[in-house]
Design a protein that fits this description.
- Strands 9-10-20-13-22-11 form a six-stranded mixed beta sheet. It has a four-stranded antiparallel beta sheet with strand order 12-21-14-19. Strands 1-2-3 form a three-stranded antiparallel beta sheet.
- It is built from ten helices and 22 strands.
- The two termini are 14 Å apart.
- The protein is elongated and about 80 Å long.
- By secondary structure, the chain is α+β, with helices and mostly antiparallel strands.
- Helix 5 crosses helix 10 (370-387) and helix 7 (235-245) crosses helix 9 (308-322).
- The protein has helices at residues 31-36, 89-94, 99-110, 128-133, 135-148, 162-170, 235-245, 247-253, 308-322, 370-387; strands spanning 5-11, 16-21, 26-30, 44-45, 50-51, 66-71, 74-78, 84-88, 125-127, 150-154, 182-184, 200-203, 215-222, 230-234, 257-265, 269-277, 279-281, 287-290, 328-331, 338-342, 346-350, 362-368.
- The chain folds into two domains: 5-110, NE0471 N-terminal domain-like (2-Layer Sandwich); 125-384, Double-stranded beta-helix (4-Layer Sandwich), CATH 3.60.130.10.
- One of its GO terms (biological process) is carnitine biosynthetic process.
- Keywords: Carnitine biosynthesis, Dioxygenase, Iron, Metal-binding, Oxidoreductase.
- It catalyses: 4-(trimethylamino)butanoate + 2-oxoglutarate + O2 = carnitine + succinate + CO2.
- Belongs to the gamma-BBH/TMLD family.
């Protein structure tokens, strides 16, 4: 339970409101933010959780005319034009501007905690039917997917269409040029290197798109007797290693725009081109997305000639770290397994397998966006908390 309010007062010539809580702590709120965030029906549409107040109607220098504490659970403010606003204690507490409170709110919204791993990965496993039928299991799946980056769902039917069901469970799948789902098999005249029986080096899918899919699903329908093992590596863990081992290489890969290309025909005909940095970083220099697929990296390279060799040296060092025995985890999917993983973080590959007169290995693949996955996670959490 959020503590009640003991005292409220205006500071800084009315530009700031200070709230003193019953637990002895205090919070300060700028008046311009309070006016902008008014929750009354004129300023806010509850049915859409959306602001109605127009920015052109907001005075950035606004001050509070009157501040009152009707009871310990809310404050009221009267503005110079006579407009009145009320703010609930719990609502205010969550939106405190202290560094600690902001970090807590961001953690609650985006679950930034990561569990790094290498060859020692204990691959998390959850039965597919539990995820489909039980909200606690579905919530556990998505939380683990966000934290660890990979979860294996077991016991799905060995037929196409199970990923469509999984897509409906979270909301919807991501449509790409390869269709709503796609079949990974050894195909004649393959339009993608995945549709061969050869070895696939570590990569993330679809860096040729400006917004690559955040999550990937691969459902094993048929598995070859020899070869075809899957390999994964925690790209964020490797990025941390590279940053420590060779900061210059990390800087090159996180600042150089690399050209990607994908041209062909599948769900429809396509000619896609994009520039991506191999490592996307946030304001603190931490990796937030890896965009690396050697197969679709273009021969066009839009950098000065003298920077080419240093780039290749940096990329080779990164690639060597990805492939080191201490970092990669190898496993073999069984028919009915669905591996779900973070396509922005986990790079995946495959060992080669023998070709045959008929299809010996068949995976169905699909994508989802992190926005959809995180939306379902928050809704599941809200439902479970209400039940408790």
């Amino acid at each position: 339970m959020s503590p009640g309010i003991q005292k409220v007062e205006a500071l800084d010539a009315g530009h700031l409101i200070r709230v003193e809580w019953e637990d002895g702590r205090e919070s300060c709120y700028p008046c311009v933010w309070l006016r902008d965030s008014c929750q009354c029906p004129l300023c806010f549409l509850p049915s859409a959780s959306a602001r109605r107040l127009l920015l052109q109607d907001l005075d950035v220098n606004i001050t509070a005319k009157e501040v009152a504490l009707p009871d310990t659970k809310k404050i009221s403010i009267t503005w110079p034009d006579g407009h009145a606003s009320e703010y609930e204690a719990e609502w205010l507490k969550k939106r405190c501007f202290s560094e600690e409170a902001r970090a807590e709110m961001q953690a609650d919204l985006f679950l930034p905690e990561r569990q790094y791993w290498g060859s020692d990965l204990q691959l998390p496993k959850i039965p597919f039917e539990e995820v489909m039928c039980n909200n606690e299991s579905a919530y556990k799946w998505l939380c683990t997917l966000k934290k660890v980056g990979i979860v294996l769902l077991t016991g799905a039917a060995t037929r196409q269409g199970e990923l469509v069901k999984l897509g409906h469970r979270i909301g919807f799948l991501r449509l790409t040029f390869y269709g709503p789902t796609w079949q990974v098999q050894d195909k004649a005249d393959a339009n993608n290197v995945a549709y061969t029986n050869g070895k696939l080096c570590f990569h993330t899918d679809y860096p040729v798109l400006h917004h690559p899919p955040g999550v990937q699903f691969l459902h094993c329908i048929k598995q070859t007797a020899a070869g075809g093992e899957s390999e994964v590596v925690d790209g964020f863990h490797v990025c941390n290693k590279l940053k420590k081992q060779n900061p210059e290489a990390y800087q090159i890969l996180s600042s150089t725009a690399v050209d990607y290309t994908d041209v062909g025909v599948d769900y429809c005909d396509f000619a896609v081109h994009c520039k991506q940095r191999i490592i996307d970083i946030d304001s603190r220099g931490q990796a937030v997305r890896i965009n690396y697929n050697n197969a679709t990296r273009d021969t066009v390279f839009d950098i000065p000639a003298e920077k080419v060799r240093p780039f290749y040296a940096a990329l080779k060092e990164f690639n060597d770290l990805l492939n080191s025995a201490e970092h990669k985890f190898t496993y073999k999917l069984k028919p009915g397994d669905i591996v779900t993983f973070d396509n922005w973080r986990v790079l995946h590959g495959r060992q080669s397998y023998p070709s045959g007169s008929e299809v010996t290995r068949h995976l169905e693949g699909a994508y989802a966006d992190w926005d959809v996955v995180m939306s379902r996670l928050r809704l599941l959490r809200k439902g479970l908390l209400k039940r408790d």
